[in-house]
Amino acid sequence: MKTYDPQAMYSEWTSQLSNQNNWQEWMMPAKAFLEMPMRTMLKDLGAELDPAILSKLQSDYLQEFGGLWKNFLSSSPPVFDDKRFSSPDWHSQSTHSYTVSSYLLNARFLMSMADAVDAPEKIRQKVRFAVQQMIDAMSPANFLVSNPEAQAKLIESKGESLVKGISQMLSDMQKGRISQTDESAFHIGQNVATTAGTVVFENKLFQLIQYSPLTASVHQRPLLMVPPCINKFYILDLQPENSVVRYAIEQGHTVFLVSWANPDDTMSDVTWSDYIEDGAIKAIHVVQEITKQEKINTFGFCVGGTIISTALAILGTRGENPASSLTLLTTLLDFSDTGILDVFIDEEQVAKRESSIGAGGLLPGRDLASTFSSLRANDLVWNYVQKNYLKGEAPPPFDLLYWNADSTNLPGPMFCWYLRNAYLENSLKIPNKLTVAGEMLDLGKVDAPVFIYGSREDHIVPWQAAFASCALLNPKRKKRNRFILGASGHIAGVVNPPVKKKRSYWLNPDIGSDPQKWMNGATEYPGSWWPEWASFLAEHAGKLIKAPSKAGNVNYKQIEAAPGRYVAVRAE
User: Fold this and answer.
1) Which helix (H) or strand (E) is 69 found in, with range?
2) CB within 8 Å of 445: residues ≥ 6 apart
3) 3-class DSSP state for residue 484?
4) Do residues 137 and 16 lie in contact, with contact meaning Cβ atoms separated by under 8 Å?
5) Which of 139, 242, 252, 274 is 20 to 30 A from 378 in CA distance terms?
């Protein structure tokens, strides 16, 4: 059976931006099924659609379209509620309101077919995702000829908006990606990643930053933070007012942070075991040596959480137990539920990556960036097509989107191992199935109290999947695990400082094994979950001592000021 590649479909449909004939066919009601690639897609995936169901859907469609056409002829304006078409221009002009209503009707028809497909759930998920990509791409808001807002801007500016839009599109084509923010407004170390500190160690995989204290006294046990290696670390240190790093320092912790290298060809042979042994484990040992503390607090965000958990498990097998506590933010250890990312992962796609870069090579950062953008195409792609190109508007400065555009490459062998053993085969959770850094991996060997955080609207790490880590860690001492659920998504849920007084979080000390049961018994609290984490951290950080006067020690000298050289290296 041929596997449908959603990423290839995404590229194909985005190319239709310049082909208005495709859009016109899309708007023709009688051709909605026959003229679209739906039938080919189903055939390629080995899926079927019951003819009786299809006939019923077509009948309902034609009936709805007939009513829509009747209202149009009688000058009765259709009513619709979609934020993409919230401007009065879409509602006040009958041609445009009819166009939108036709589009939304076609979209409902296609999604109804996708939902009715007779196939295993994984195939159904692929079909739904692919159809949604097509629906998003063919929105009338994405074309100048059918976007009244862009047309009004064109007339008002006497053509200047179109000239500027084309210029911005050509510039983005050279960059190979859509500009989501004014990237010239940000400079790493100047207005992002500004928390003061010093690089005290480096190897080819990472630099280790020790941050300067902000309190006269600090907790005895330091905090080591391991961010994801698929993004730059400064998502945890964007601005002083929303910096997780600075917040931890303000709570009286001596904070160390791993700044991963942005791989180039010299790192094309680096493996997952290298990230564990020469990355996380090395960082743990350096922090221990600098602070003269056997026990340290450990922290991992997203893939960084998978890495630090694996490292602690390997050290446990070796008889070492360095963690006083472990914090995991939006982390997968059990990959049973990988959310929407599952549409990109099957045997054929993983084998394809293995054959191309599994033995050596790089996964370009732009590939990862386009994948994540496709998960929220309306917000991260088409929104900017409309504003940047059709209306000629320059994107405003936004630190989070600057970080989002600052991609990182990944070593092929490391990425392929992770893709197969974690995402495809879900082997990390099985004790002693995998060998990592020369040892059998058993996450049950992680011996520390654990603070596990999930975000309720996370589309990358579903909160139920984050919750599943509770069953793998401290299997014989479950009360050492604590789970907390925050509002919002993968990034916004994490970066939610108390001063903003935004969102809310849920707590239930009775974890159990069922996430929905946990949620049913949880209590919602207003504001940020950070103070809950601060209390957990302080509980395991030891007594207060005088803050260190300088970074490093005689064996680990100061190399350069934070944020260091590694974070400044761009993938392109």
Assistant:
1) helix 51-73
2) 312, 313, 314, 316, 317
3) strand
4) yes
5) 242
H or E element that contains 493: none
Nearest to 255 by CA among 193, 213, 305: 213
Residue 344 phi, psi dihedral angles, 5° rounding: -95, 0
The whole-angstrom separation of Cα 111 and Cα 127 is 9
pLDDT at 37: 60
Q: How far apart are CA 482 and CA 56, in angstroms?
A: 50
pTM of the model: 0.90
> Measured between alpha carbons, how far is 331 from 301 in angstroms, rounded to an integer?
6
User: Which residue's entry shows tokens 């791989």?
Assistant: 263
pLDDT per position as a tens digit, 221-267? 999 999 999 999 999 999 999 999 999 999 999 999 999 999 999 99
In angstroms, the Cα distances linking 466 to 62, 96, 267, 338, 452 are 44, 44, 30, 10, 7
Measure the CA–CA gap between 402 and 473, rounded to whole angstroms.
35
Tokens of 337: 């539920």
Name the residue type at position 459. H
Which two three-digit tokens encode residue 425?
Answer: 């085969």
What single letter denotes the amino acid at residue 531? P
CA-atom Rg of the chain in angstroms: 26
Angstrom CA distances, 45 to 6, 447, 463, stand at 12, 44, 29
Residue pair 153/392 in contact (Cβ under 8 Å)? The answer is yes
User: Which residues on adjacent β-strands are paired with residue 328?
Assistant: 300, 452
pLDDT, tens only, 500-546: 899 999 999 999 999 999 999 999 999 999 999 999 999 999 999 99
What tens digit of pLDDT does each residue of 12-58 get?
Answer: 434 544 444 544 444 444 344 444 566 677 777 777 888 888 888 88
**Tally of residues, the chain:** 572
- The residues carrying an active-site annotation are 302
CA distance 197 to 183: 24
Q: Which residues pair with 363 in a beta bridge?
A: 410
- Provide mean pLDDT across the span 82-99: 90
Question: In this prediction, what percent of the chain has a pLDDT beyond 70?
Answer: 93
Neighbours of 62 (CB within 10 A): 14
Q: Within a 13 Å sphere around the CA of 156, how many CA atoms are in the beta-carbon half?
A: 9
Pairing of strands 504-507, 481-486: antiparallel
Q: Give the range among 149-158, 166-175, 436-445 with minimum mean pLDDT.
A: 166-175
